Amino acid sequence: MKKWLPILIILGIILLAGAYLANLNNRLVPLDEGVSAQWGNVESAYQRRADLIPNIVNTAKGYAEFEQSTLVKVTEARSKATSIQIDPSNITPAQLEQFQQAQAGLTSALSRLLAVFERYPDLKANENFKELINELERTENRINVERNRFNEAAKGLNVEVKKFPAKLFAGMLGFEERAYFKADEGAEDAPEVEFNFGK
User: Which tens digit of pLDDT belongs to each residue from 55-71?
Assistant: First the structure.
């Protein structure tokens, strides 16, 4: 019996380690999937904004044909922003920064567009354009909410991945920390995306 004792101890350790890894994996999978699902919501909110832009540009074109350079910049910024694809299971800080820069470029182009068209009373009075701008504002709010929810989901996963002893094994199981959305420089000054139609 004594000769089997070391083997039984080793088998017991292996079983305990296996049970711990299975438990760890089962805890991390829903958190990981939650981050990926929330990333889908972030992308959906940004896509909603991108889908609004052609309608805004087309409505504006008829009122200010000579502002073509501004319209082209918005279209180009939209194209750049929608061309960046990120794998939600492997979001790195560098990828997220590239994504944010492209989206910030689009936000900036939209802000310039709306500032330019503030000078066109006929456009400002257009009911379709007003509704598009209101929809854009609602979409910007939705983007902010979804980004915050993504950060919360990423935080939940990151906390679990960093805990000891999970951090010794999480990488081995394929779970890594996720990057967070960070406020862009000057983000405390929200872009103006709404006209004062009553004036």
Answer: 888 887 777 665 778 88
